[in-house]
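User: Show me a protein chain along with its predicted structure.
Assistant: Here is one chain, sequence first, then structure tokens.
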Amino acid sequence: MLYFWLDFQATDIAPYHLGNLSIEIPIVIKMRLIKLLLSVIMAGIVVSPVVAQAKQTICAFDEEAASEIKKTYSLTNMGIKISIPANYRAVARTGGSIEFVDNGTYKMFQCLLNNPGAGGRGYFGIKVYKSKIDYLYSNVQNIVPGRPNFFIVWEKTQDNGTTFHDLKLRIKTRNGILEVEQINGDEPITTEQEANELRTRLIEMASIIDTI
């Protein structure tokens, strides 16, 4: 930015009256001005609206349909292995959880990482993490048929007259207790029908997971 300082001082006369006596007192006025080039000011006026109207980056990557080809991930530190579609990717999250998402969603994650503040979308997938509970059967609704160490967790909470359902799969492994969730596009579950549908999907999910 180009600018220069302009210093000047001037002397003025201020009359002061004391009874019938009039005295003129010199007053020194000192001023400092900052003078900006007109072109710089105009540039600021022109540029500001452009910056304000800058478009936000949108990370628009569509979901990929699940492949019929399967591959197996072994999570040895968690004590399980899981069979997922071949076009799904494993994503390590802060806090130690692992998410399995389709390749389109994975690309969206990469875009969001490279463009802080960018917009994205909700997504679907599977989330696995070590449980923080202090009691295996806390909020357990039932055992998964045929899987003695697999449990359906069903927690209900109330908020302003609305019931929210939180369901997950709990697994007892030799390395501790795990929670497995189905990521549901960030949509809360507020009806018994939706909750029962998710319960069915969690039972199906148990069939693709084994302890090791």
